[in-house]
Amino acid sequence: MGHYEQQAKKRFGQHFLHDRGVIERMLRALSLSPTDRVVEIGPGPGALTFPLLERLTHLDIVEIDRDVIAWWQQQPQANGKLTIHAQDALKLDVASLRGEGEQLRVIGNLPYNISTPLLFHLLEQGSYIRDMLFMLQKEVVDRITAEPDSSDYGRLSVMMQYFCTTSYLMKVGPGAFKPPPKVDSAVVYLKPWASLPYTANNLVAFSQLVAQAFSQRRKTLRNTLKGLVTAEHMESLGIDPTRRAETLAVKDFVQLANLIS
Questions:
Q1: What is the reported pLDDT for 11?
Q2: Are 184 and 164 in contact (CB under 8 A)?
Q3: Which residues contact 218 (CB under 8 A, 6 or more apart)?
Q4: Percent of the chain at pLDDT above 70?
Q5: What pLDDT does 14 receive?
Q6: Backbone torsions φ then ψ of 198, nearest 5 degrees
Q7: How big is the CA angle at 4 (ends 185 and 64), to the nearest 5 degrees?
Q8: 226, 170 Cβ separation under 8 angstroms
Q9: What residues have CB less than 8 Å from 105, skipping those under 6 apart?
Q10: pLDDT tens for residues 9-42?
Q11: Which residues of 34-58 are buried (b: 16+ CB within 10 A; e: fewer)?
Q12: CB-based contact 35:7 (threshold 8 Å)
């Protein structure tokens, strides 16, 4: 298999996964077919990549670290089966990567420092993506999958659930990585909606309203949305202005945003 001696780099937020049991459970969750169009973000030394290459006829990887790219170019298993996209995942053009083929299945042990902006970047191009399976900081997965009326439910929950269904698959301790991170991790499965259950007429307005609603969690909607939505507006949708943002479902935020935009 070859051995990757490169030290994980702090600037890329790298913590390399090495626990085989975790890797097997992640791949089982995807139920891969050999011809699936899979894109792995940040392969590092290949804990996920090598098992993926065994299961697939072809794999795309996205990697920004030149040392890692050079190492992959030397791997015999990669020959003819691996396409390396040497770029920042935050600038990935998902549409052109998909081309005329099947929707993409995206997988990765994401660097903590780019995980949230990367998720939004991918979900904004969600029509080209079949599903996504990511290892993230546990706190982030808790927030992505949270339901209304819970302490983890907030802006990230609403925005992610607007774009996709979210499933918390498993918690993963620091020992599964080298070097061990200081926090627990978790695996999340995301599936973009085939058609949105609730459509915001203006995505920017929707995003701004959600951000403002959660800007002061302890305050009521009447206070946090002052200047944006009147109490009368809220009441016309059957939403009590004395409620807090964390009690509203995604549908409620979409209806509010559509009313004012």
A1: 42
A2: no
A3: 244
A4: 95
A5: 63
A6: -140, 125
A7: 65
A8: no
A9: 30, 32, 36, 37, 38, 39, 129, 130, 131, 132, 133
A10: 444 446 788 899 999 999 999 999 999 999 999 9
A11: eebbbbbbbbbbbbbbbbbbeebee
A12: no
Please identify which residue in the block is written with the tokens 């915001």: 200
Distances from the Cα of 236 to the Cαs of 171, 210, 225, 249, 256, in angstroms?
Answer: 42, 19, 15, 16, 10
* Rounded distance between C-alpha atoms, residue 156 and residue 82, angstroms: 33
Domains of the chain: 10-192 (3.40.50.150), 203-260 (1.10.8.100)
C-alpha–C-alpha distance, residues 132 and 154, integer Å: 21
Instruction: Name every residue whose Cβ is closer than 8 Å to that of residue 62 and which is 6 or more positions away in sequence.
Output: 39, 40, 41, 42, 85, 87, 89, 92
What residue type is assigned to position 109 of the chain?
Answer: N
Average pLDDT over residues 180-202: 96
Structure tokens at 239: 């939403």
Tokens of 87: 């770029």
Give the span between the Cα atoms of 83 and 110, in whole angstroms. 19
Q: Are 40 and 60 in contact (CB under 8 A)?
A: yes
d(CA 42, CA 4): 14
213, 253 Cβ separation under 8 angstroms: yes
Q: For residue 159, give the amino acid letter.
A: M
How distant, in Å, are the alpha carbons of 35, 46, 52, 134 from that of 57? 6, 16, 9, 21
Return mean pLDDT, the chain.
Answer: 92
